[in-house]
Amino acid sequence: MKKTCSTVLLKGLLVVSFLSYGSLVIAAEPEVKKETPVIAAAPAVVEQQGVIARVNGTEIDAVELRRAKKVMLRGQIPPADQIAAVDKQAVEQLISAQLLFQAAAKMEIKDLDKQIDAKLAQGKERFKDEQEFQKAIKELEMNEKELREYTRRDLLITQFVETTFVAKTVVSEADIRSFYDNNQDKFKQDEAVKASHILIGVDDNATVDEKKKAREKADKLKKELVGGADFAALAKGNSTCPSAPQGGDLGFFGKGQMVPSFEKAAFALKPGEVSDVVETQFGYHIIKLVEKKPATTTEFKEVKAKIEDYLKGQKVNEAIQKFIEDVKKTAKIEILLK
């Protein structure tokens, strides 16, 4: 499929609810540095303190809102005019989570403490040592006792949703087939090729003479290939692309993934053929086509289980939302967020 139909069952809901221990651990993990657009610094915001909502008398503290937003935003800074909307959304999710927990608290789970211990141990394995783990939960304004309570609530909600909604949700064969037939675009795989290349790279600010020398080197390598030289060996010894150690192997790619001139040359080849020298903004390439896959549509039997999971997830989420809406009608909810 172009876009894999992912399951949107309970765990997805728990991530949104911010009661999920897994979500808190992810939020606490050291962030991996990545390239992101520069965002103008948002104006300083004074975070509200104290109780921000009550659900049937149970208080939701501002610290829970801060944790919720940390999970929701994943380090991103929202524009100033959207901060209030983010706060409102997080509070609504915390209220929904609290309503689910209040319903789940009536259940009994066998060996709950053992399950909590196991989940805590699993979470700790994400960190290199105890010091890093303690630092992470401190950044979430938590201690281990509070983390254990979050984990207990997570497990109770999981069990409640599994028994109340998931176990009772069925997706018919007809519904699965109908989704497949009506969403053929999701199951199409475009034509793809597997290719290797040798790149003689040229800097953007290269002189005319430097470009000429790079082209001459590429032409020389092409002649060697025509004479029977091993493509992978030449790539390893001459290519300036990071793929050089793999003999220039680029793996499979479809149309739209490479620059136009490279793509045109690659798709015009037959398996085993080697192109003439191709110029792009990166330099001069020699391309060898390894394999070509025609456009296909994934068969129903191969995606049936994924479609079933996807449709079941939709039904479960709808049932949960309806449950929350119904419970809200008789719940006493006070929103104190300013």
How would you characterize this protein structure?
The protein has 338 residues and is an alpha+beta fold. The protein folds into 2 domains: 10-30 and 44-178 and 301-335, Triger factor/SurA peptide-binding fold; 191-294, Roll (Chitinase A, domain 3). 51% of the residues lie in helices and 14% in strands. The chain contains 12 helices and 9 strands. The chain has helices at 10-17, 21-28, 62-73, 83-104, 112-124, 130-139, 144-164, 173-182, 208-226, 231-238, 260-268, 300-330, and strands at 51-55, 58-61, 188-189, 192-201, 249-254, 278-280, 283-293, 296-297, 333-335. The strands form 3 sheets. The chain has a 4-stranded antiparallel beta sheet. A 3-stranded antiparallel beta sheet has the order 2-1-9. Strand 1 and strand 2 (58-61) form a beta hairpin. Helix 5 (112-124) packs across helix 7 (144-164).
